[in-house]
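Dear Dr. K.,

Following up on our conversation at the group meeting, I've run the structure prediction for Dimethylargininase from Kutzneria chonburiensis. I'm pasting the input sequence below exactly as I used it, so you can double-check it against your construct before we proceed with anything downstream. Let me know if the numbering doesn't match what you have in your notebook.
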Amino acid sequence: MSATLDAPLPSAEQIAQVRVPTTRRYLMCRPEYFTVEYSINPWMDPSCAVDTRVAVEQWTALKETYEALGHKVELIDPEPGLPDMVFAANSGTVIDGVVLGSRFRAEQRAAEADHFRRWFLRNGYRDVTMPTSINEAEGDFAWTGTVLLAGTGFRTDPGAHAEAQEVLGVPFVSLRLVDPRYYHLDTALFVLDDRSARPEICYYPDAFSAGSQRVLRRLFPDAVLATAADAECLGLNGVSDGHNVVLPVEATALGSRLADRGYQPVYVDISELRKSGGGPKCCTMELRD
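The predicted C-alpha cells came back this morning:
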C-alpha cells in the first residue's frame, strides 16, 4: 500500500482488494498423549479433567482447516510421556530453510527438542542448529518477513535473540512480556501479513512492557490492537496466511475487527488444548523453505 503514515487508513473495501493468501507448509503433532499432568504456566491445572479424545478431534479439525485452505501439513510422530509435544511451534524456527531448534526452560518438555531435531534431519534439512540459550522457538519468535520479533520475560532468554540473528541471518527486535498469562510471544502477538513491503501484526498491548509497547507503536503504527477479552481466549494465538486468519471460536470480536481490515476470520474450537495454554499457533510450526 502506498499510503503514508500521516494519511488516513484505506477503507476496508480498499484493503480487501489486496489481501492475498499464500500457500504455507506447517509441521504439526497429533495430541495422542495430551493431558495436563504438571503446571508450567497459569493456564495449566492438573486437577482439571482433560479429555484426550476431544483434544484429538479439535486438533484434527485444525489440521483439516489448514488443508481446506490449501496449505500443506507435515506430521511428526507423538512420543509417550511428552503431553505437550502437540505444541509444535515451540520446537523450531525455520526461515529460508535454515533451522534453529529449541531449548526448553521446563525440564518436563526438554526431550521434545531432540525429537524435532531428528525429524528435520530425516526430512532433508541440513542446516540445523540447536541453541545454547533457552529458546522456545516460535513460541517467542514471530517472523514478519523483514524482522524477527523476539519475546522474553518468562521463557526464552534475551541471549537467544542474538543467537537467532546469527543462525538465521535475520535482524531481531526484542520485546519484553510482563503478564504471566501471556508467557510466550505467540499468546500476545501474531503476524497478519509477512509477504508485503509493509508487514502487519495484531497484538495485545498490556502484555508488554511500556518500552516494548512504544517499540511496537513505532514499528507498526497501523497494527490491529487486541483487547483483554481477545487475549483471555487466546485470540492472539492465531495463524494467518495473509488473508485467512485462523482464530479460536471465542475470538469473534477480534475476528470482526480483522474482517474490517479485509482479512477473513476462520474459527476453530481449541477449548481442550487451551487447558494447557495452547491454541492454533501453538500447534503449528511454519516451515519456511
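Two things stood out to me. The helical segments are 12-16, 52-68, 112-122, 159-168, 210-219, 228-232, 252-260. The chain is about 25% helix and 20% strand.

Best regards,
J.T.
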